[in-house]
Amino acid sequence: MTQPTYIVELINNIVVVKISGDWNVQADIGYLTVLDETISRVRNDRWALFADLRGWRASEEVINLKHNLTIQLARNNQQAECWLVDNMEQGKHIQHHIENAGVPLYKCVSKQDAEKWLMQYGFYL
Question: Which residues are registered as beta bridge partners of 51?
């Protein structure tokens, strides 16, 4: 098992997230708290989210958490969300949150593809 880690930064109105390791409930709650605090700093402007999920593994316990079905971050003014993943199945258990919010979501395995896609929306990493 690898220790769960997360970093959340704000760069050029992009909430930049790096999560990795074997995810547990404690890490999930801590991460969501920091993520919401960071989003609150840009919520009144146009913003995007870029998440590097490479090396992130969510346990069945985390995937089946009730809050994964009900939690909703306030996505006011969010223009785009891009995930850099190990494979296209990664994060599928939380993908509905972005889709339900009507925010364009792009998953890719190349950082270059991610940067190119975000540029279409006027965001630069």
Answer: 17, 83
